[in-house]
Amino acid sequence: MIIMLIITLGIFIYMYFTLRSQIKDITAQLDFIEKNRSNALITIRVKAGGSKALAAALNEMLENHRAERVMWKKKENEISCIYTNLSHDIRTPLTSLDGYFQLLSESEDKEKNKRYISVIKGRIKALSDMLEELFMFTKLENKTYNIKLYKCDMSEIVRETLFSYFDEWEKKAIVPELKLTEEKLYFYGNEQMMHRILQNIIKNVLEHGEKKVEICLNSIKNEIRLTIQNEVTKPDEIDISRIFERFYKADVVRSKTSTGLGMAIAKEMTEDMGGKIEAELNDNIFKVSLFFKRL
């Protein structure tokens, strides 16, 4: 009996000092990992006395902490990228404005002054649109945009939006080929947001597209499908995987008055209404497709 007690006491003392040593070792490992920003995980020598469960819990916490650190680092890089793009996008029209104001102040030719004023108005409008686009994207990203969804008629929204761009189509000598159903296509959405989505896609067409534009609206089973496609002159310069990426500009030369946020906003708004948006490029035909559940 005494021998058994001695053996038990010996085992207890051994386990006590082993676990005590292991806790010190775990503490030292944690200290090293934290100080050196190491990606190492906690290791243990003896898997007893709950030390295995403790190490597993600590390792899970470390991995979660690292994932959060990576996420915040990514956010920091994104914010830095946003400020860089923002300053560049705003600086371009401002520099142009400064130049035309200088020409206007130095010129006494009435015809030239009219032209300068017209250009200045255009640049101010472009700058205003850019700032409004940035403001809208920020609200969507921060989920501060109040979205009210209700029953809408896609057919009516599409026709209204297309008609509002009549002058722009005419200036570009573009006659869109329209294939629009006569049916009323109801869906659960927001008219203002849907107009904005279409405006952004059409602006993209007007800025980057050529004369051949085709717009189709129909319904297959319980799904509303809207496609807008146009010819592009430099398909090799378009990275289709980045079309909905914020600040992406396929043609920098032709995007001097654009933030590159239009398609990103279109995607955010479409998804906020429960829809889906896709883009594809086949040879020199660029196509954007929108899908909504029909009521």
TrEMBL record:
Top-rank lineage group of the source organism: Bacteria
Alphabetized UniProt keyword annotations: Kinase, Membrane, Phosphoprotein, Transferase, Transmembrane, Transmembrane helix, Two-component regulatory system
GO molecular function: phosphorelay sensor kinase activity
Domain spans labelled Histidine kinase: 85-295
A Gene Ontology cellular-component term: plasma membrane
Family annotation (PANTHER family): HISTIDINE KINASE, SENSOR HISTIDINE KINASE CPXA
Protein name (Swiss-Prot/TrEMBL): histidine kinase
Organism: Butyribacter intestini
